[in-house]
User: Fold Peptidase M75, Imelysin from Notoacmeibacter ruber.
Amino acid sequence: MRRQPILAVLAVSCGLSFPGAASAQSEEQDKAGVRAVLSAAVDDFIVPEYRALQEQARSLQEAVQSLCEDPGTAKLDQARQSFAEAVTVWSRVETVRFGPILRQNAAERIYFFPDRRGIGLRQVQGVLAEEDATATDAESLAGKSVALQGLGTLEFLLFGTGAEVLAEEEGDFRCRFAEAVAERIEVTAAEVTDEWTEPDGIAARFVDPASSYADFQTQEDSLRALLGVFTNGLEMIADTRIAPFLGEDVNSVRPKAAAWWRAGLTGPAILANLEGLSDLFQRSGMANLLPEENGNLPVEIAFEFDNAERALQKVETPLSEAVETAEGRSPLAYLLIVTRSLRSLFAERFSGAIGLVAGFSSLDGD
Assistant:
């Protein structure tokens, strides 16, 4: 454990002045420690999770294709199960909002949410009403709105109004549209994964930053991006995944404002969000960055992640249904409190302990 904020030590190499700056040997040790955390974050979480997303997206595309080729109830159930697995895999890595996932609207192409004005739904319904053949071809679909290309559209096609027709020959157009969407999801996931696995790509720049890079010039830049996964990710979960459908009380709940409500996957997705963050924290070894006087902070963080999981386990029905009763809403209100508490642990205490001021919110558009 380190005896002073690690960025105070690293600042020596940047020409900054801090009281009690460490020796050159200590500085090199701290640089190596930070590099180990950054490398583990990439090798043990980010890359494996994106690879898992790409593989599951491929499985989803194959399941939808099989449904279109041989429609039936069993094939529809298989496609829906594959969709649920894709949502879980995506949710685990959804909070990583730096790098290729931000280029060319990749995150929105995978999942366009929140859609407060219902843009995506209107576009999907328009394609179905007009039977727009260009939406059944993945290449032409790529030129359309990002709201039509991702998991949100596929959720409506597989679970929304009229989805039962997919089990019949009469559902051919809807199914071919779904197949094109699934293919677009696979392509986007593959593009993001490929960028993360390029030998001299973002992973190399993130782990070994240099002044010649536009994105990661110092280890502080990389640490800020990594910390942002937690601060911005937990804010996303609280403010866009829980609060909108929870409301202020049982009289102001909005069940259909919940992500994945049609598929009944609101709870599993939030759980996967939180489990992904917990796994990233553990696998990256971020606790090793803390000074010894903050040695109990990882225990507090783990405790709050466990609290969040227990709160979700108390809800036995889909969250969008449970929220409509006082009994069902109670653990969700607690979940919101815990999620915001977790964010404070990272944004205030963890960042302060390592000498880093958390960056702006990725949700505020600044």
Observations:
- The domain at 219-354 is CATH 1.20.120 (Four Helix Bundle (Hemerythrin (Met), subunit A)).
- Residues 323 and 330 are 8 Å apart (CA to CA).
- The chain has two domains: 32-207, 219-354.
- The chain has a mean pLDDT of 93.
